[in-house]
Amino acid sequence: MKAITIKQPWASLIVHGIKDIENRTWPCPKKYLGQRVLIHSSGCHGKKFEINMPDEQMKQAFSLISEKSTAGKWEFGAIIGSVEIIDCVMNHPSIWAEKGVYNWVLANPIFYERPIENVKGKLSFWDYPGIKEVKIECPECGSIEIAVEDYTTAPFSTYLHRCNKCEHVIMESEWHVVK
């Protein structure tokens, strides 16, 4: 899958569904519009960062930022989730959109309960091999879920997902990909 590196706290705000825009000086390539990409939090270990947000943004993000900051739970140098890039515009009405730059419109975020740690990021879009997101059906409640097939875990691949609706743990023997 393709991945993109984003600094904290923005990466966490995106995968938690709080920040719906990624601001860039360059337009999102058309081939990535409508695609799901992995969100990699940059590896700025131990550096202090200042959160400079207007009041409206701070109100929306405060609980997540407070919880992660006080508990020291920021993930750095890790793939922490994924999101769909559904559009690329300028001057989007979202409170997260900056003026004069490209606003990548994001939707359907997924936060990984267990991040993929110790991953070195790159500029622009980059390939992260070994991860594939698939749609599966929960055998307990029938909910269609986006789950991760992780081929990087040795010696065996990981097929394990907790249903977001009924919390049933879907294991490899119950793993049925939906097209």
Helix content: 10-25%
Q: Give the SSE string.
A: EHEEHEEEEEEE
- Count of helix runs: 2
Distance between the termini: 18 Å
Q: Helix- and strand-based class?
A: mainly beta
Strand order in the sheet with the most strands: 2-5-4-3-1-6
Mean pLDDT: 82
- Specify the biggest β-sheet: 6 strands, mixed
Global morphology: globular
- In oligomeric terms, what are we looking at? single chain
- Give the strand tally: 10
- Spans of at least 5 consecutive residues whose pLDDT stays below 50 are none
Compute the CA-based radius of gyration.
Answer: 17 Å
User: Strand percentage, roughly?
Assistant: 35-45%
Describe this entry's structure for a reader.
By secondary structure, the protein is mainly β. Helix content is 13%, strand content 39%. The protein has two helices and ten strands; from the N terminus they run βαββαβββββββ. The protein has helices at 10-15, 55-71; strands at residues 2-6, 21-24, 35-41, 78-90, 102-116, 125-127, 131-137, 144-150, 158-162, 169-171. The strands form two sheets. It has a six-stranded mixed β-sheet with strand order 2-5-4-3-1-6. β9 (158-162) and β10 (169-171) form a beta hairpin. The two termini are 18 Å apart.
